[in-house]
Amino acid sequence: MTTPDDLLDSSLTAQYESYPYPERSAKDESKRLLIGSPSHLKEIDYWVFGARRPTSMPLRALVAGCGTGDGAIMLATHLARAQRPGEVICLDRSKAALAIAQARADVRLLSNIRFIEGSLLDLPALDLGLFDYIDCCGVLHHLPDPDASLAALEAMLAPGGGMGLMVYAPYGRTGVYMVQDALGSLAPVTDAPETRLDMARRIMRTLPATAWLRQNGNFGDHLSGGDAGLYDLLLNPRDRSYTITAFMALLNRAGLEPTCLMEPARYNPALFLPDPKLRAKLAELPPLEQAAIAEELTGNMATHVAYVVRKGAAPTRPDPLDYDSIPIMREIPGVELAKQMRADNTLPFAFGTLLVPIALPPQTRGLLPLIDGEHTVGDLARALETRGVSAEKFRQVWRESFDTLESLNRVLLRSPA
């Protein structure tokens, strides 16, 4: 007898074979590398391993539900460019999606990536072994039992390993579930994928101006990503979302804890609530409660991204005030980030569709161009000393600069060779 879950799984299979997501073309690999979180190598080194794991150690990574390959291609490319040992295993049950990911890897001549057709629902039977790092991005919220699947992934972590996860969040997806419900009647899962997509296109062409989805500017790839993006947004037969509180509960049940919510600063409501009385009240609340308030008040978090490790296994990161520590820019060169600072020494930072001015010490403007992944903190101190900044003042400036830029995921610390 066909169960509702069987029907939904059949519909999901048909969706990703007909419209592999996200919509990608191998020919674009010669033009650009798509960058994001999780699974950026510098982020893994810092947020998962605490900038303690030597880069000479091979990294065995699993991308559980790789889709058309964005995270896997990024991580494998980062490893190859840095000439670091390791292998990225890409698992997905969609033959069509894997073919696209494979073609993208071929264009980049990546020899450190391998593709396996299989389902996350059958992880134990696949016998893939243990992994230092597991990426599960945009997958758990489509599974029949996210708790069981996350527990199965946790069992595949090597000692000291961690994961990069992404799940949908409800408030930033306001309007999506309303349209999904309407299409549940107009384009039932029993219809062929092309028939369902036709109905979704018709809805979007005539969607009333009053629809909440019309007011929501939090979607990029889904609404500009062709048929695959539209299908995944409005027609995915199994789509749940998690508030930050529910997401933390999911992690807790799997025996996991976050080392970082991405970006950490976006979960700090004090950044966009300047009222002193409000800030004083916020300071009395535990971090999770503050994060929930940030999600509830901003209303634009469409996803939650986290790096996680087993409970009690969070690494102690190096002291950024240690003169031997080496700061690195995650992606944007320091000289370019310094140019983005305004005359009032604030850095305009976009948390999705919310732009917040982040205050920095005036000296940060001169420090940023010195951060090149080679200069130590001691080098930075000596450079500022020639500009009349005492050692004590430097420590104060660097502490504030690093803490702020780390919370924006812009400046991290380098791992040892």
Description:
The chain is of the alpha/beta class. It folds into two domains: 4-171 and 240-310, Rossmann fold (3-Layer(aba) Sandwich), CATH 3.40.50.150; 327-413, no CATH class. It has 18 helices and eleven strands. A seven-stranded mixed beta sheet has the order 3-2-1-4-5-7-6, with helices on both faces. It has a two-stranded antiparallel sheet with strand order 8-11. The chain has a two-stranded antiparallel ribbon with strand order 9-10. Strand 9 and strand 10 (354-359) form a beta hairpin. Helix 8 packs across helix 11. It starts with a helix and ends with a strand. The model has no long low-confidence stretch (mean pLDDT 96).
Q: For this structure, what is the CATH homologous superfamily of the largest domain? A: Vaccinia Virus protein VP39
What is the name of the CATH architecture of the largest domain?
A: 3-Layer(aba) Sandwich
Helix segment count?
18
- Overall shape: it is globular
Strand order of the main beta sheet, please? 3-2-1-4-5-7-6
Low-confidence stretches: none
- The CATH topology of the largest domain is Rossmann fold
Mean pLDDT, as a whole number?
96
Q: How many strand elements?
A: 11
In whole angstroms, how far apart are the ends? Answer: 57 Å
| Series of H and E elements | HHEHEHEHEHEHHHHHHEHHEEHEEHHHE
What fraction of the residues are assigned to beta strands by DSSP? 15-25%
The top-level CATH class of the largest domain is Alpha Beta
GO molecular function: methyltransferase activity
Domain Methyltransferase type: 63-161
Pfam families: Methyltransf_12 (PF08242)
Protein name: Methyltransferase type 12 domain-containing protein
